[in-house]
Amino acid sequence: MRIAVIGAAGRMGKYLIQATAEAEGVTLGAAILRPGSSLVGADAGEIAGVGKLGVAAVDSIQACAEDFDVLIDFTPPGLTIQNATACAQLGKAVVIGTTGLSDEEKNQLNALAEKTSIVFAPNMSVGVNLTLKLLAMAAEILGDDYDVEIVEAHHRHKVDSPSGTALRMGEVVAEALGRDLNECAVYGREGKIGPRTQKEIGFETIRAGDVVGDHSVWFATEGERIEIVHKASSRMTFAKGAVRAAAWLEGKKSGLFDMQDVLNLK
Ligand SMILES: NC(=O)C1=CN([C@@H]2O[C@H](COP(=O)(O)OP(=O)(O)OC[C@H]3O[C@@H](n4cnc5c(N)ncnc54)[C@H](OP(=O)(O)O)[C@@H]3O)[C@@H](O)[C@H]2O)C=CC1
Ligand SMILES: O=C(O)C1=N[C@H](C(=O)O)C[C@H](O)C1
């Protein structure tokens, strides 16, 4: 599979270029930058800080349409939808790591997945995807007597809250407990909030410094507390997962998948 990375100079973009260059069975076909970027024409490997790779960065999907089979996209939500629409028209597969999509944008991806194959996941790391399984198991065993609280911490540049991973963790726990997250989620408590209700699932957000991504899920009752914790220490773990997802899409004509499909965890 020939991979194109869009948002190539971004925090994730650079790791995605490196991970693609280092992976077996895939090649870097293209690197795409914001139109007008001063880096257009520069070597993708040099943008990523890994030395020349022989791929000159371009400023649009159309400019490299002949050079790739699957696009990896970690960009803002509105742009992600535009990119996925272009890929569906061109018959290209897409791996999407972008978080913070609205329900309407998620519906748009669902519709696009009838025309092309898409992996869409808020966290591409193996560790987080295993953690999702552990959370479902914990919630099923512990049941309603344990209060569930989800705490996430990320770097100061992150623009969405709670993180996509925290929300997915909430969805997994809510489903295992027979709840609808839309009805039981409580975000960022403040003021005279009164006692906790039994079935709420709380979310707390920390934004500080250069934290790559920490998630902690509490199951707490009278007398004990379990914490299931995942800490990412390098963005390379997300990049490797995204490249694995891109390779996994080979031969898949259409459909919306997530990392649980890629890792065979369903
Ligand atoms: N699923 C997962 O495993 C993970 C998901 N994420 C998610 O990925 C997303 C990106 O995160 P991160 O890399 O930290 O963010 P960055 O802001 O570093 O990267 C976003 C990239 O998108 C580019 N971009 C923005 N607007 C445009 C535009 N109009 N045209 C072309 N390119 C554009 C930016 O270009 P420029 O550099 O010119 O501004 C930048 O390169 C977030 O939603 C984050 O939550 C992050 C890590 C892991
Ligand atoms: O923005 C980030 O950095 C990250 N975003 C993802 C999320 O919102 O869950 C995944 C990871 O934790 C890093």
From TrEMBL:
The active site is at H154 (proton donor/acceptor), K158 (proton donor). The gene is dapB. Pathway: Amino-acid biosynthesis; L-lysine biosynthesis via DAP pathway; (S)-tetrahydrodipicolinate from L-aspartate: step 4/4. Its EC number is 1.17.1.8. NCBIfam families: dapB (TIGR00036). NADP(+) binds at R34. This is 4-hydroxy-tetrahydrodipicolinate reductase. It catalyses: (S)-2,3,4,5-tetrahydrodipicolinate + NAD(+) + H2O = (2S,4S)-4-hydroxy-2,3,4,5-tetrahydrodipicolinate + NADH + H(+); (S)-2,3,4,5-tetrahydrodipicolinate + NADP(+) + H2O = (2S,4S)-4-hydroxy-2,3,4,5-tetrahydrodipicolinate + NADPH + H(+). (S)-2,3,4,5-tetrahydrodipicolinate binds at H155, G164, T165. The keyword Transport does not apply. Residues 127-263 form the Dihydrodipicolinate reductase C-terminal domain. Catalyzes the conversion of 4-hydroxy-tetrahydrodipicolinate (HTPA) to tetrahydrodipicolinate. Belongs to the DapB family. One of its GO terms (molecular function) is 4-hydroxy-tetrahydrodipicolinate reductase. It is an enzyme of class 1 (oxidoreductase). Keywords: Amino-acid biosynthesis, Cytoplasm, Diaminopimelate biosynthesis, Lysine biosynthesis, NAD, NADP, Oxidoreductase. It is found in: Cytoplasm. It comes from Rhodanobacter aciditrophus. PROSITE patterns: DAPB. Homotetramer. NAD(+) binds at G7, A8, A9, G10, R11, M12, G97, T98, T99, A121, P122, N123, M124. Residues 1-124 form the Dihydrodipicolinate reductase N-terminal domain. Pfam families: DapB_C, DapB_N.
